Structures are given as C-alpha cells and as structure tokens.
Amino acid sequence: MFDQDIFSGAWQSLVFGLVGIMLMAVGFVVVDLLTPGKLRELIWTDRSHNAALLLAANQLGIALIVFTAIFTSYGEFSKGLVSTILFGLIGIGLMALAFYVLDWLTPGKLGDLIAEKTPHPAAKVVAASHFGAALIVCACIS
Predict the structure, then answer these.
(1) Spatial distance between the Cα atoms of 22 and 122, rounded to a whole number of angstroms
(2) Which of 8, 51, 69, 112 sits at a 20 to 30 Å CA gap from 17?
(3) Tens of pLDDT along 65-87?
(4) Which of 33, 30, 138 lies closest to 87 in space, CA to CA?
C-alpha cells in the first residue's frame, strides 16, 4: 500500500533531526561556556542582545552545517549521519576557536562584552565570526 521509501525517508528525517538538535544543544553549551554567567539567564532574564545575537549565529551556523552534510551525503544514510556528526562537531570547535582568536586580537574580555545588557557593535563581529566558521565548514563538506 505504502512505498517503503516513505517510511525509510521518515525514519532518516527523524534521526537527522535528532542529531541536528543534539548538535545545536552542544553549540548552546559551548556558547554558555564562552560567556560568563548562565546563557539562558543572560538572554531570557537579563535580555542581553549581545548574547542572543551570538547564540543565534551559532545555532544558524550549526543548522547550516547539518543541512550541508545531509544534502551532500549522496543518499547514503550512514555516510550522511557520520558526516553530519563529524562536521557538526568540527564546526562547533572552529566557532569556539574563532571566539578565542577574536578575544585575543581585541581589547578587553569578549565574554564580558557578550554578557552585557547594552547592545555592543562588537557582538555583531563575534556573531559573524561564528557564522563565518560555519560557512568554512560547509564549503569543506561540499
């Protein structure tokens, strides 16, 4: 009655979706470690635009890496799954490295700046470096 490919595709979508969400959760934890205080309090309680911008760039970057890894897996589920996990973790690591390099190149502590409630233009630069790191990984995948 139903084509087996439909169920296989649905199962693969579920697995890839769960892996993607888990990678975004890891990305959240990494951004939380990069910033002083608790990230969820900084964003949802203190309403830090800087922290929200950094987290948004991080989450979009990870989602783009996951998308690219799945899209280029050539229909091989296991290859796509392994590449999604591997490149997702590489991307998260490179985003953290980009944060530390930018912190080293600029005055003050970047984490403190991100934790501030008042919007700061440097938060855009930090967010762009996270997203840029993700784009580099996407280019390597494809």
Answers:
(1) 28
(2) 51
(3) 999 988 888 678 888 899 999 99
(4) 138
Q: What is the distance between the alpha carbons of residues 129 and 95, in angstroms, rounded to a whole number?
A: 7
What does R_g of the chain's alpha carbons equal in angstroms? 17
Are 131 and 61 in contact by the 8 Å Cβ rule? The answer is yes
Q: State pTM to two decimals.
A: 0.89
Whether the predicted pLDDT of 1 surpasses 60: no
Q: Which domain holds residue 124?
A: 4-141
H or E element: which one contains 76?
Answer: none
As a whole number of angstroms, the longest Cα–Cα distance in the chain is: 65
CA–CA separation, 96 vs 111, rounded Å? 12
Burial class (CB in 10 A: 0-12, 13-18, 19+), 57: buried
For the stretch 10-30, pLDDT in tens is 888 899 999 999 999 999 999
Look at residues 81, 61, 76 and name the one whose alpha carbon lies nearest to residue 137.
61
Query: Count of domains in the chain?
Result: 1
